[in-house]
Design brief:
Structural class: alpha+beta
Number of helices: 1
Largest sheet: 3 strands, antiparallel
Strand content: 25-35%
Distance between the termini: 40 Å
Order of helices and strands: EEHEEE
Number of domains: 1
Radius of gyration: 20 Å
Strand order of the largest sheet: 2-1-5
């Protein structure tokens, strides 16, 4: 699973996919000398408006967090020998 993270002035925002339109909006705001861009929420809500301006530190990161694993303790292999615990 891919998660997108936007870091603006040291604060992290996790973004829903796709982010292409959002990147274009941020770039347009910076090119025009500054402007507000709504950062959508990851799940629900109204998001947050951020004022982007030239020179503001902005970092886009794409993280591969892997697929969620099924959780079943009965089928889980253990590397611990019970005799070692005594």
């Amino acid at each position: 699973m891919i998660v997108h993270r936007l870091t603006v002035d040291g604060k992290d925002y996790f973004l829903p996919h796709p982010v292409t339109e959002l990147r274009d909006q941020v770039l347009a705001a910076v090119k025009s000398g500054g402007g507000y861009v709504n950062i959508p929420p990851l799940k629900s809500g109204s998001g947050v408006d951020i004022l982007f301006s030239p020179g503001m530190p902005v970092v886009w990161t794409q993280l591969d967090v892997g697929e969620p694993e099924a959780h079943n303790d009965a089928d889980k292999d253990s590397d611990i020998d019970p005799d070692d615990l005594m």
